[in-house]
Specification:
heterodimer, A: alpha/beta, Amidase signature (AS) enzymes, eleven-stranded mixed beta sheet, 15 helices, about 40% helix, B: mainly alpha, about 0% strand, disordered C terminus
């Protein structure tokens, strides 16, 4: 099989090829490194390349499989890691200049679990500084570019994972999501991004942005790969205070059962206050398709999602302010001024305002969970717009002048704030050829159902199979 | 407040920071009208024994 073909396969397909012996882990590593070499100058998806480390890991994996046998779907699979997952002996910048030389002395929980599954990481991926931006701009490392149009942003903060998976530089990447940082780049780059229920995947060894809102999530070509990744990554970890104790589940089970009689609710307000026409058109077509698969679609009046969004913003900024207080006050000149000001604004949020925002969050989360009793899942567009120009600051949408970051994050942040599981899958393209994301949101710990619905949609459409011309 | 937080008061940076703080204050004000009497400020944790597994 020619190297170029391997880079177009999903993790599931690559795993089958490795298990059957059709390809070796070394073939796989060579194919992806060759693709990275060819595309990286245009895309800038990586902050740190680890080619030698990856080749060595692939060679060791190959010997291991011959000696001890194949141990599962990630054995011999290269993974891209957003550059805020600690990797022992390999620098972890968190997209910042301040941590530009930081080399962790231990692995994050995610890196440990990957290694235990037989995978290895093939590079540390681009992100916005300390994950505090929904664009793909980075003053220190340059912008990551959208493979569908190099003049456009990839979304963030997990920009590199979005770009690298969409362009075939890696078959899978792991990102983090505090306000939409897995789902936004997934939508803008035309891939699948899963943010599980808060606490399902350990954040040990992840550079924090906001303790009560940070989630880890896989970014993949297919929903099946996202389920495989969740099988690998989910599990209790006493080192993360918010990690939940749950029986291990097989998220692949029941994935292909279809969606007959599944009730899908579409919020009737907030979402549509700011919405690009092409994005809405693709979303409405996706709902018609879901109906044709046997599900019931209904509009739903929800608690004020805008208030949840605002409460999330206050909580996130306040927590980020405390986390980075000493650094912005003492070494502020080393930050991108935009990120610095965003963090510093959190220091002006009084304790009572933070606590009030937490109360609002708790109240509205309760109301939203009650609303969710009327349906099985919610569906929305992932973002209000498709990928903006790299340096675009504002967009005019139906006559409204909207900041780009608001247009990108306003829908996803709602569901990070309340900790519900959410997935973004490709559901079409704008007239200009840019991908559009469909977001599905479930009840707490209903990942199996969420993946099943996303799978039914993906298996019966081909949006996820389209590739940018590189 | 900036002084209390340890900012250098003669920094021109503070002038640039002001609009960002103003935006944040507006967001806080949006929440003012929500009646939260009796509601305990929660974190994001969801006890696994209180929810149905999907």
């Amino acid at each position: 099989m020619p190297n170029e073909d391997l880079t177009q396969l999903s993790v599931s397909q690559l795993g089958h090829s490795i298990e059957s012996g059709d390809v070796s882990p070394v073939d796989v590593a060579e194919a992806f490194l060759s693709r990275i070499n060819a595309l990286e100058p245009q895309l800038n998806a990586f902050i740190t390349r680890v080619d030698e480390y990856a080749m060595q890991a692939a060679r060791e994996t190959e010997k291991e499989i011959l000696r001890d046998g194949y141990k599962g779907p990630f054995h011999g699979i290269p993974i891209g890691l957003k550059d805020l997952f600690w990797t022992k002996g390999i620098r972890t910048t968190s997209g910042s200049a301040i941590d530009g030389a930081f080399v962790p002395t231990e692995d994050s929980a995610v890196a440990s679990r990957m290694k235990a599954a037989g995978a290895y990481f093939i590079g540390k991926l681009h992100m916005t500084e300390f994950a505090f931006d929904g664009t793909s701009l980075n003053l220190h490392y340059g912008p990551a570019r959208n493979p569908w149009d190099l003049t456009r942003m990839a979304g963030g903060s997990s920009s590199g994972p979005g770009v690298a998976v969409a362009s075939g530089q890696v078959p899978i990447a792991i990102g983090t999501d505090t306000g939409g940082s897995v789902r936004v780049p997934a939508a803008l780059c035309g891939i699948t991004g899963l943010k599980p229920t808060f606490g399902l995947i350990s954040r040990y060894g992840v550079t924090p942005l906001a303790w009560s809102m940070d989630h880890v999530g896989p970014m993949t070509r297919t929903v099946r790969d996202a389920a495989l990744a969740l099988n690998m990554l989910a599990g209790y970890d006493s080192r993360d205070p918010d990690s939940v104790k749950m029986q291990p589940q097989n998220y692949l089970e029941g994935m292909d059962r279809g969606i007959q009689k599944i009730r899908i609710g579409v919020p009737s307000d907030f979402i549509w206050d700011v919405m690009d026409s092409d994005v809405e058109k693709a979303f409405r077509a996706a709902m018609v398709h879901m109906e044709s698969l046997g599900s019931y679609i209904r509009e739903l009046s929800t608690p004020d999602l805008g208030l949840i969004n605002s409460a999330g913003s206050v909580v996130q900024t306040s927590e980020a302010g405390i986390i980075y207080r000493s650094r912005v006050l003492n070494k502020g000149q080393h930050f991108d001024p935009v990120i610095r000001r965003r963090i510093e604004s959190g220091l002006f949020i009084p304790a009572e305002a933070y606590l009030h925002a937490q109360q609002v969050r708790a109240k509205l989360k309760g109301l939203l969970l009650e609303t969710l009793e009327e349906v099985d899942i919610l569906a929305t567009p992932t973002t209000a717009i498709a990928a903006p120009e790299i340096d675009q600051e504002r967009a005019v949408i139906h006559g409204q002048d909207v900041p780009i970051r608001e247009a990108l994050l306003r829908i996803t942040r709602v569901f990070s704030t309340v900790g519900l599981p959410a997935i973004s899958v490709p559901c079409g393209f704008t007239e200009g050829g840019l991908p559009v994301g469909l977001q599905l949101v479930g009840k707490p710990f209903s990942e199996s159902l969420l993946l099943r619905v996303a799978q039914a949609y993906q298996e019966s459409t081909d949006w996820h199979l389209r590739r940018p011309e590189m | 407040m900036a002084k209390q937080q340890g900012f250098e008061m003669d920094m021109p940076h503070l002038e640039e920071l002001f609009p960002e703080v103003k935006t944040m204050v507006q967001r806080m004000k949006l929440l003012d009208h929500v009646d939260t009497v009796g509601i305990q400020p929660g974190s994001n944790s969801i006890p696994t024994d209180t929810v149905a597994m999907g």
